[in-house]
Specification:
Alpha-Beta Plaits; elongated; binds iron/sulfur cluster
Length: 106
């Protein structure tokens, strides 16, 4: 077998640059939530967790940490239309924040 000296080779670099990560913001209309935790279960990045507080209906609602990728799975599975997400930095983000009720989480 022939020994290959790799020390003098040029470093390997990717041909295609890595795409920018997708960032989103998730909002919860907490008084609509019925505490089923489907959104928490389906979130692929584990951004959502159960609140310690109760909403007006007596349920624990989801709270969001950083790291949402705007995949909208939580939006799809929520039976109460209580959670929605937007692309971070989009013009819709401000409106979404306003649409979430006073106790909503951004
Ligand atoms: S949009 Fe996707 S990543 Fe963001 S909170 Fe919902 S399920 Fe999680
Ligand atoms: S899926 Fe909807 S109703 Fe269920 S915990 Fe999440 S926000 Fe609340």
């Amino acid at each position: 077998m022939i020994a290959v000296d790799r020390a003098d080779r040029a470093p390997r670099v990717p041909v295609v640059s890595r795409p920018a990560p997708v960032r989103g913001r998730v909002f919860v209309q907490r008084d609509r939530c019925k505490g089923c935790e489907l959104c928490i279960e389906f979130c692929p990045t584990s951004v959502l967790s159960r609140s310690k507080d109760f909403n007006a209906r007596g349920y624990h609602y989801p709270i969001a940490a950083a790291g949402c990728i705007n995949c909208r799975l939580c939006v799809t599975v929520c039976p109460e239309y209580a959670i929605f997400s937007v692309a971070a930095g989009s013009r819709g983000a401000a409106g979404a924040a306003a649409a979430a009720n006073a106790g909503g989480q951004a």
